[in-house]
Amino acid sequence: MGHLLIFGLGYTAKRIAAAMRELGWQVSATGSAGDIAFADREAVLAALGQATHILSSVPPDRASGGDPVLDTYGEALAGRALFYLSSTGVYGDRQGAWVDEATPTIAQSGEGRRNARAEADLAWLNMGARVFRLPGIYGPGRSALDRVREGKARRIDLPDQVFSRVHVDDIASGVVAALTQDAPAGAYNLGDDLPASGNEVTEHACRLLGLPLPALEALEEANLSDMARGFYMENRRVANGKAKRVLAWQPRYPTYVEGLAALL
Fold first, then answer.
1. Which InterPro entries match (predicted)?
2. Is-contact 16 28, C-beta < 8 A?
3. Which residue blocks in the chain are alpha helix, DSSP H?
4. 50-59: average pLDDT
5. pTM surpassing 0.90?
6. Distance of alpha carbon 22 from alpha carbon 141, whole angstroms
7. 213: phi then psi, degrees, rounded to nearest 5
8. What is the distance between the alpha carbons of residues 89 and 76, in angstroms, rounded to a whole number?
9. Domain harbouring 101, CATH code
10. Which pLDDT score, from 0 to 100, does residue 114 have?
């Protein structure tokens, strides 16, 4: 069995760690929930020496825009079996069009403003990593059901806006497939089979819970954070065919309907 070192043991990486341990792998990780301090260079390099596979779920640094893992330990990662959790945000706004792994990212095409995530995505690809581009992630404690229950759900009046999403356990199964099959380097989209508007998902959650729909708000009047506004300004459908074909991956929750039903 292998030994997996995870940089950043967050919401998604914890699911991956648990799945790999169930398969008999050794797993060590940096971060507050891990067993190694990221800044303890000696301990990290020792762990890298033992690891057969390395996964980073660490996002770019908000202040510098750099990738903390590559900036700090990049030289020690060269030539290793690398895996990186990225975002489908690297594709930018596609006005509702489908994107796949052959679609140029913002960093590759030079479109739009500088995008730290797209640059990190490209840097990991150039290191020979398997890069998983993830859309909106939902799962236990983080879904439309939780937002509706807490009174935090929004409905924004953008009739043509659509995006993809993925259940956290489907991310885990896709990454596990890549780890255990020695998957080819490159990008993989892990998203469900049904891109849909945020309003559709919120309305379905309300129906499941028997709660009233939030009021429909215009984007200009919704008083959203810059991050949330940026999210609503992007519009794309993410194709998942490569992951199904190359990794033999099938989402357990092919649409938000199955995903929310399981969470309920």
1. NAD(P)-bd_dom_sf
2. no
3. 11-22, 41-50, 68-77, 106-109, 116-126, 144-149, 168-181, 198-209, 226-232, 241-247, 256-263
4. 97
5. yes
6. 23
7. -75, 140
8. 28
9. 3.40.50.720
10. 65
Give the confidence band of 177 by pLDDT, cuts at 50, 70, 90.
very high
**CA–CA distances in Å: residue 166 to residues 18, 59, 115, 141:** 18, 18, 22, 14
Give the other-Cβ count within 10 Å of 24's Cβ: 8
What is the C-alpha to C-alpha distance for residues 216 and 238, in angstroms, rounded to an integer? 26
How far apart are the C-alpha atoms of 140 and 103, rounded to whole Å? 31
The residue segments making up the domain with residue 92 are 3-262
Cβ(37)–Cβ(16) below 8 Å = no
Number of domains in the chain: 1
249: which 2 tokens? 């991956």
139: β partners: 142
Nearest to 69 by CA among 134, 3, 13, 1: 13
**Does the pLDDT of residue 113 top 60, yes or no?**
no
Alpha-carbon torsion 133, 138, 144, 146, what sign? negative
Read off the pLDDT of each residue in 213-231 and give the average, rounded to a whole number.
84
